[in-house]
Amino acid sequence: MGVVSLFSVAAEGSITSPKGFQAGGLHCGLKKTSRNDLGAIVCEVPAVAAAVYTTNVFQAAPLKVTRESIASEGRLRAVVVNSGNANACTGLQGEADAYEMRAATAQALGLADHEIAVASTGVIGELLPMDRVRDGIVGLPGTLSSGSEGAEQFCQAILTTDLVKKEVCVSMNIDGREVKIAGAAKGSGMIHPNMATMLAFVTTDAVIEQKALQGLLGAATDLTFNMITVDGDTSTNDMLVAMASGLAGNSELTTEHPDWEAFAAGFQHVCQTLAKAIARDGEGATRLVEVTVTNAVSDEAARAIAKTVVGSSLVKSAVFGADANWGRIIAAVGRAGQPVNPDTVDIKLGDIVVLTASRPIPFDEEEALAYLQGDTVTIHVDLNNGTGEATAWGCDLTYDYVRINAAYRT
Amino acid sequence: MGVVSLFSVAAEGSITSPKGFQAGGLHCGLKKTSRNDLGAIVCEVPAVAAAVYTTNVFQAAPLKVTRESIASEGRLRAVVVNSGNANACTGLQGEADAYEMRAATAQALGLADHEIAVASTGVIGELLPMDRVRDGIVGLPGTLSSGSEGAEQFCQAILTTDLVKKEVCVSMNIDGREVKIAGAAKGSGMIHPNMATMLAFVTTDAVIEQKALQGLLGAATDLTFNMITVDGDTSTNDMLVAMASGLAGNSELTTEHPDWEAFAAGFQHVCQTLAKAIARDGEGATRLVEVTVTNAVSDEAARAIAKTVVGSSLVKSAVFGADANWGRIIAAVGRAGQPVNPDTVDIKLGDIVVLTASRPIPFDEEEALAYLQGDTVTIHVDLNNGTGEATAWGCDLTYDYVRINAAYRT
């Protein structure tokens, strides 16, 4: 089964491509630069909604508000997002501010409070300058459009240290109707999602059961957003929200629907594309690193090992230096806390075999150097010890990561 | 009970200070520089011996040989160590080489094979150039001395990317006899010990039961070497060996001995001093970071949280930038996977209170900057949620860490 046959990628698509969605964004003064820092996605009908959140003990105030909104009726009309301030560790005032963001957005759009989700990203521990937020929200409806311009403004508004916007759109055939799924995300630092991710938003015009959407969101997250790491730090603000307008007019999608597989494949592609884009645009990154582990004792073991390798500071530094240092790869495999046969490990860098049965294989250093200087580095670890497999994504560790994070707050 | 009353630190002491030990080292050609790369500690009598090893699945060949030697009679006469080559992932030839190192050292010193421990550190996956090792071992006995010069040559021989040697010696009174405990270690990179450490060697002239020594070694390791991290990567070669000559002439130490507490405190001080020295001299480090967690639900929870905070790339980068970014500290506390009350956390940087009951406290940024630019940064996280406590040590994340590790092998 090739995924190509189940859905197609829309080159020009954005979060406003699925029917029923508008987006917009503006600069209200939360960021020191003139970049956008407030945005919204709005659906013209109540969209079936699902979300996953960070597992960090310290959860930012907006997460509480969003949970409450979705719990109300399982539907959303809009999500409002600010960057530049995470509204985390801000106490009761922070909660009050998040509720006020929700209420102000509802008022500006003529909606009910419980139809609005709230998300924030940025510095932890500072109160939102609510005067700026209030003024910004009043201006938000004027920025909304269903064209690519609105999506562009939204994508810019959610970025922090990100260098590029992250967007994707796919389409597929459900009941003979065209259904679209699109997504936008921000990432960059404090990226080591655990059962949730940095801010990511998925829109679709599919008609879908809420329970099926929530289940799909969780499953896709485990294989995509939860498989990326930039620095091993799980944020207090991670949130992934999916909204389905239902305007495609298909018969309701459930896991029993004959076209479920196509929808699920497209949905996972959207999540994976955003997750990889976050990894590739990790703070200071020059390369995307993709680690695939095969033939582990279980998928869970493969996942743990893939994440350990892709998260290793020494592996990440070696990739930055274009150094085919497989010793660091095998050392990371060995400390992942998973069952591994120490005598049966094969490792490839791209197509270059460097280790067979846990023993070094002579390889062409020049060829390896050229490969490691490329845009994407794939590391394949075959444990020859079972049938479990997984892929994880990350980036190299560079001078710029240190520079960015030694001076982020001050 | 102050530790000061139980033992005293010998400012000029070294691993040859305890009675019965000699040490030495030389350059045999394993390192590209002219620094020493082969060394030995030799005891004039069979020393009671104990060791702990890395938990990495991939264990280097010398660990197998050393385990076998200690298992034989629980005693050692010598340990031979090389740097520049880890003899890890080198297969049957690597094992044969480690056995040959042991046999050659036994022959050069006129001892039996099983009286020799072997340790290696350096690059993974390359065979030892045994001709150089053989020649070096022949020259080793000529470098041995019981004075500080021999210890100095040994300490130099075990370093890789370390900038400074790590040595400590304490003395105490057992049965009215002076007993000394001394140690030497190397660290720098791939430092995240788990039930063992990078190479470390402890000598003592105490008379001590082997079982008591092994138990003490394990307990002290958990509170010292296992509480440091440089980069989260656990090496394939970690090994800590303790040798007790018994020449102090005290009655045999067991956990029942009236002076056990003094010996254990001195022993832990030796381990902690070496562990902190490894953290302070972490690759690229400019500062030692000490994280203390108090009033956790258990000591285990405190340990996990302290290690998570001290290992966070974002916290480490902030310390390098002298940025009082407590948001990253609390985010690390929250992702440690331990029970934490999100509303009761206090955080101090040195004496500067930055968070009380999980809420920011205004502080003097200039004062914080001055503190964070110091040589040692202490972070105190009080969870106000139990009685567990722990301290972990690490270092900042700097441009030099990236530089060193982007170019280590090539």
**CATH-defined architecture of the largest domain in chain A:** 4-Layer Sandwich
Number of strands of chain A: 15
Tell me which protein chains meet in the greatest interface and how many residues each side has.
A-B, 64 and 64 residues
* Proportion of residues in β-strands of chain A: 25-35%
Question: Structural class given helices, strands, pairing of chain A?
Answer: alpha+beta
CATH class of the largest domain in chain A: Alpha Beta
GO molecular function, one term (chains A, B): L-glutamate N-acetyltransferase activity
Enzyme class (chains A, B): transferase
Organism (chains A, B): Fontibacillus solani
GO biological process, one term (chains A, B): ornithine biosynthetic process
Question: Could you characterize what this model shows?
Answer:
Two copies of one chain form a homodimer. Chain A is 32% helix and 26% strand. Chain A has helices at 61-73, 91-109, 130-139, 148-157, 210-223, 260-280, 299-311, 313-320, 326-334, 365-372, 399-406; strands at residues 8-9, 21-26, 38-53, 75-85, 116-123, 166-174, 177-185, 200-204, 239-244, 288-296, 346-349, 352-356, 359-360, 376-382, 388-395. The longest helix of chain A is centred in the middle third of the chain and has 21 residues, at 260-280. The first copy, chain A, starts with 7 loop residues before the first strand and ends with a helix. The radius of gyration of chain A is 22 Å and the shape is globular. Chain A folds into two domains: 3-280, L-amino peptidase D-ALA esterase/amidase; 288-406, Ubiquitin-like (UB roll) (Roll), CATH 3.10.20. In chain A, helix 1 (61-73) crosses helix 2 (91-109) and helix 7 packs across helix 9. Chain A has 410 residues and is an alpha+beta fold. Chains A and B meet through helix 8, helix 9, strand 13 and helix 11 of A and helix 8, helix 9, strand 13 and helix 11 of B.
